[in-house]
Amino acid sequence: MTTIVWLGLLIITGVIGFFIGAQVTRKQLKQTELEQQAIQAQTELEQYRQDVSDHLASTKKLMSKMQESYTQLFSHVERTNQVLLTEKTTHPSEPFFSKETTEQLHASLKSRPERRRDNQRSDGSAQPVDYVEGESGIFTGERSENKQANIS
């Protein structure tokens, strides 16, 4: 009987050892898996930090380029403003007409006969210059007589 008991104990111990080994192996596998996940998370975090660092560096470069462009634009506007202000004060304004045209206009004004104010009535009832004295155009007496002759 001792042999059967020893065999039974050996089988029971083998089965118990198998389950204990399986549990230990599962825990070991979970632990290795968790360690791998932790390492992967750490590398992803480092990659994310590197990406953010690269992004901030490129943003800084773009901002410095933009600042340089604004500085150039500002200096260009200042130079243009100074040029316009200094040219305005140093150069006389350009005449509307050329020199020859201005001379011809002055000559024609000098050659015109001057109107005499003493020809106009001094009482203020003078007829405007664009009015014609007497009858003119369709208001002349001859035309109205011609029309009456044609009608009869």
UniProtKB/TrEMBL annotation:
<keyword id="KW-0131">Cell cycle</keyword>
<dbReference type="GO" id="GO:0051301">
    <property type="term" value="P:cell division"/>
</dbReference>
<dbReference type="GO" id="GO:0005886">
    <property type="term" value="C:plasma membrane"/>
</dbReference>
<keyword id="KW-1133">Transmembrane helix</keyword>
<feature type="transmembrane region" description="Helical">
    <location>
        <begin position="6"/>
        <end position="24"/>
    </location>
</feature>
<dbReference type="GO" id="GO:0008360">
    <property type="term" value="P:regulation of cell shape"/>
</dbReference>
<keyword id="KW-0133">Cell shape</keyword>
<keyword id="KW-0175">Coiled coil</keyword>
<dbReference type="InterPro" id="IPR009386">
    <property type="entry name" value="ZapG-like"/>
</dbReference>
<feature type="coiled-coil region">
    <location>
        <begin position="22"/>
        <end position="51"/>
    </location>
</feature>
<dbReference type="Pfam" id="PF06295">
    <property type="entry name" value="ZapG-like"/>
</dbReference>
<feature type="compositionally biased region" description="Basic and acidic residues">
    <location>
        <begin position="111"/>
        <end position="121"/>
    </location>
</feature>
<keyword id="KW-0997">Cell inner membrane</keyword>
<feature type="region of interest" description="Disordered">
    <location>
        <begin position="86"/>
        <end position="152"/>
    </location>
</feature>
<keyword id="KW-1003">Cell membrane</keyword>
<keyword id="KW-0472">Membrane</keyword>
<protein>
    <recommendedName>
        <fullName>Z-ring associated protein G</fullName>
    </recommendedName>
</protein>
<keyword id="KW-0812">Transmembrane</keyword>
<comment type="similarity">
    <text>Belongs to the ZapG family.</text>
</comment>
<keyword id="KW-0132">Cell division</keyword>
